[in-house]
Amino acid sequence: MNAARALALLLLAGTAPAASYAQSAPPAWQDRTLTPEARAAALVRAMTHAEKLQLIHGLFPPRAQPAPADMIPSAGYVPGIPRLGIPTLRESDASLGVANQVEQRKGDVATALPSGLATAATFDAEMARAGGAMIGAEARAKTFNVLLAGGVNLTRDAWNGRNFEYLGEDPILAGTLAGAAIDGVQSNHIVSTIKHFILNAQETGRTVLNARIDDAALRESDLLAFEIAIAAKPGSVMCAYNRIEGDYACESARMLTDVLRRDWGYTGWVMSDWGAVHSTVKAAMSGLDQESGQELDHDIYFAPEKIEAAIEAGQITEARIDQMVTRILTGVIASGLYDHPTPATAQPIDYAAHAEVAQRVAEAGMVLLRNQGDLLPLAKSAKKILLIGGHADVGVLSGGGSSQVRSVGGAPVEIPLTSGAAASFARITWHASSPLQAIRAKAPQAQVTYVDGSNPAAAAAAARAADMVVLFATQWATEAQDVDSLALPDNQDALIAAVAKANPKAVVVLETGGPVLMPWLEQVPAVLQAWYPGQRGGEAIASILFGDVNPSGRLPISFPRSADQLPRPRPVVPAGLNANAASDAGAGDGSALPSWDVTYSEGANVGYRWYAAKGTQPLFPFGYGLSYTRFGFRDARFTGGAAPSVTVTVRNDGTRAGAVVPQLYVTGPEGGAPRLAAWKRQALKPGEAGQVTLTADRHALARWKDGRWLVPAGKYRLALGQNAASATMVGEVEVPAGAIRK
């Protein structure tokens, strides 16, 4: 061996351990001891420029051409980067279950939860979390890893067609339950969004209208719901269709950068709603990180060639591109998706167990509005029970739009739309959960029959021969369209009045997306608000009607006596304008259509606070709900200080087990309408008593002033009761000045 060769071998031997060590050291983005932001930044440094641009825009599968081989018919698809372990993002609508609108995936079913309002009516964060966890588990098993969930827009208008998806009119309740549902989804190591940011409060003209509101009022209402829910750290925030104070929501630097990033410290990514992008430079530089469903936009604004041109022109910086991609990857890593990729193929799903979750939420969320003479629960000894209307022989109604679930059992009734902004993606659909069959199972000795109610006179004649009558009244609502009227459609008011006159033992079960008018209320002894009760709705309704489950739901939304009580009796739209085109996200570029202002002059006085400010009484107030038992409140102790509270003994004074929801409302030293500050759902057996402490949420005490949350010093009125309109016990306490610090 010559000297040169010996030296070479020696050098090679000396460096081998170092080379081996370098090869074994994991890259920084795989280091789970680092923060998601640091890992994401390391990934971005390892990416090519083309790979970065690949992540900031996504396909809309129904229109994507050519379609990638591994793309599933669904809401969205963003190709991954396998060499770096970055997963393909497979996005599904998922407000109430893994959606499959118009059955674009033939034969694919999922568990359908009740409507969002039903979940809200439980006043139970654990129920909301269980629903989110169930949906997330099914999504992951179907290989989806981004769920377009977390809807938390406040109900400002009772006629909003999308109210059923959301969580009611109170920001603290809605934000708390939305956060719990998001946490449930993401417990499956997938991404949940929160949506629609911000003030997407009217479906009519949603792609063009300009929402206007005082800044402090927005902070204390709609933004507050998002601020509370975002504590659950959703991987992504979805910006809305509408304009907010002149700028499109997906181009609003004030909302996407000042509020979301500076004030709240949000670190995940902002994705657009589908068809909500209108520019390249303004959107990107205002805080939009990803264009979703790009084929629904007038142009593909975040296409590589457009981004490259903007960079070349100095309008978008490379640093901003890196920031956009870092935020996308932060959401992917923080949710657990990066470290726990979804399976490559579909996995088995325990649909039976998931159906139980749906039924528990439906039962806990149904609200007993009226029960004169204790007509309910129905006696199982009844011999002749007549069901009328609502297709109750085969199923229960569901809401329409992107949230539509093709539920287990299929759709026994499905009616295509022939017109309207929702016609392209919605059908009037019933879940296969028959109240008729469920009631027959509860009362096997009875003759249980059904008539469709199309002829009020014939229905009344049948009712005279029955011991009990259960009327199913329905009102369908959908995304992209607001309801035409708060009155029940299709002559149902006349049907109910005729049947109630024929048989005094009549129960009305409402399957609606929100409040409806009830001109027949005094003629009917019992009314049950079932909402859209999901794929086990028939069974849940029967359990409530027969008393196997004691109703415990509380209204998360006020029911008006008439539309004239509302801040806006009907959708705000200029006369003669084509509202369909202005509501359909797939109709083209909304900027080509005329815009108009919708001014929310009620400000933070949303829902029950509006009625209180006006000194009027709704038909049924927020928080209201009856039970088959009686509850008493005793020995309330009100405490002041920085965290004012009330401690009270709650006792079940009746003969049935049930759940009660004590609610604490706060009025500050400046006066004004009260605010829900705390609540607790408490289950009690007959004769059982429990001590409940309700501590006021600081946001119910604070006001947005000078760019921050400040708690004014002074006397606060604490009202304890079972709804927003009546107080069982009242105390006055002193609260010192303070601030809410992040």
- As laid out across the biggest beta sheet, the strand order is 1-2-3-4-6-9
Number of strands: 31
Portion of residues in beta strands equals 15-25%
Structural class, please? alpha/beta
Roughly how much helix do the residues carry, as a percent range?
25-40%
N-to-C CA distance: 71 Å
Low-confidence stretches: 1-22
Largest sheet: 6 strands, mixed
User: Looking at the structure, what is the overall shape?
Assistant: globular
Rg for CA atoms? 27 Å
The overall pLDDT average reads: 95
Helix count, DSSP H or I runs of 4 or more residues: 19
Architecture blueprint of SSEs:
Elements: H1 3-24, H2 36-46, H3 49-55, E1 76-78, E2 89-93, H4 116-121, H5 125-141, E3 146-148, H6 171-186, E4 191-197, E5 210-212, H7 215-219, H8 222-229, E6 236-239, E7 243-244, E8 247-248, H9 253-263, E9 269-272, H10 281-286, H11 304-312, H12 318-334, H13 351-365, E10 367-371, E11 384-388, E12 396-397, E13 414-416, E14 427-431, H14 435-442, E15 447-451, H15 456-464, E16 468-475, H16 492-502, E17 506-512, E18 526-529, H17 537-545, E19 597-599, H18 608-614, E20 631-639, E21 645-652, E22 658-660, E23 663-667, E24 675-679, E25 682-684, E26 689-695, H19 698-701, E27 703-705, E28 708-711, E29 714-721, E30 729-735, E31 738-739
Helix pairs in contact: 2-12, 5-6, 5-13, 6-8, 13-17, 14-17, 15-16
